[in-house]
Design brief:
The chain is an alpha/beta fold. It is built from 9 helices and 10 strands. An 8-stranded parallel β-barrel has the order 1-2-5-6-7-8-9-10, surrounded by 6 helices. It is globular, with a radius of gyration of 17 Å.
């Protein structure tokens, strides 16, 4: 079994980056189809999210931390068939109940997943112990700033830093660059604030800095993906990078492929 803390193999990276797809990109399809599409786009890693239907043949089964060993074996076989490995899981809630929380970590361990992505700040005292026990990283994901909810602080990299700075070094940020843009923040500035504490990333390029902005192929939006890749490299970040393309839901594969190609051909 792959140890969760093992580095992502170089042969599953693209131009030095462990970039693939967040299965949520293909949430109109099944997990097996998401694996197919990730491979078709040129990706070799995938991030699963909880609740996606397994396959056209088994729509009653779902991919999540409550799946049976038989279901997990089917997922592993499909991944192996396509030459893709699972590297992250989220965004998923982590309970204050250690028994429930442990299910997520056991799932990650079984699947060889390196990072669990969450927004569960309140239960950190429960799951920090599991981070140490399982040697699995946890990344705090950011959604956009909510004008009608000042209590939601996950969009702010300074807040994330305040939460993680005195915690185990395997706890950090799942840096969603698109949601930072929707919050009016420049992604590179946010990455620099979180330097050394980024454990995973959802890399996006949007057509603007507002809540209505949508995904674009890398290099065609206003997110400055070139600068983001340079910053990843400068920080020595080698964690999973997910393309979470939330546009053209039924036919995003050409744009996702263009994102992979951008990284493949990128030169610093």
């Amino acid at each position: 079994m792959v140890r969760s803390a093992d580095p992502i193999p170089d042969d599953h990276k693209i131009n030095g980056f462990a970039i693939g797809c967040q299965a949520y990109t293909f949430n109109r399809f099944t997990a097996f189809q998401a694996i197919d599409k990730t491979a078709a786009a040129g990706g070799k890693v995938i991030e699963f999210y909880p609740g996606q239907k397994l396959s056209p043949e088994h729509p009653d089964l779902k991919v999540d931390h409550n799946a049976t060993p038989e279901t997990l074996d089917m997922i592993k076989a499909k991944l192996k068939e396509k030459g893709v490995i699972a590297v992250a899981y989220g965004v998923v809630g982590l309970s204050k109940d250690e028994k429930e929380c442990r299910k997520v970590f056991e799932f990650a361990k079984t699947m060889g997943i390196r990072v669990i992505n969450t927004e569960s700040v309140d239960s950190i005292d429960t799951w920090e112990k599991l981070v140490k026990e399982y040697d699995i990283k946890v990344g705090f994901h950011d959604h956009p700033k909510r004008d009608n909810n000042a209590d939601y602080k996950m969009w702010d990299p300074n807040y994330i830093l305040s939460v993680v700075k005195d915690r185990d070094v395997r706890i950090g940020s799942c840096a969603d660059t698109g949601h930072w843009m929707r919050s009016g923040l420049k992604p590179v500035d946010c990455l620099r604030i979180l330097k050394g504490r980024i454990v995973s990333s959802h890399l996006k390029d949007l057509n603007g800095y507002n809540h209505l902005a949508h995904d674009m192929p890398y290099g065609q939006g206003e997110g400055d993906v070139n600068a983001i890749l340079k910053e990843y490299q400068a920080q020595g970040f080698d964690g999973p990078i997910s393309i979470e393309y939330e546009h053209k839901w039924e036919d995003s594969l050409p744009d996702v492929t263009a994102c992979i190609d951008y990284v493949k051909n990128w030169k610093p």
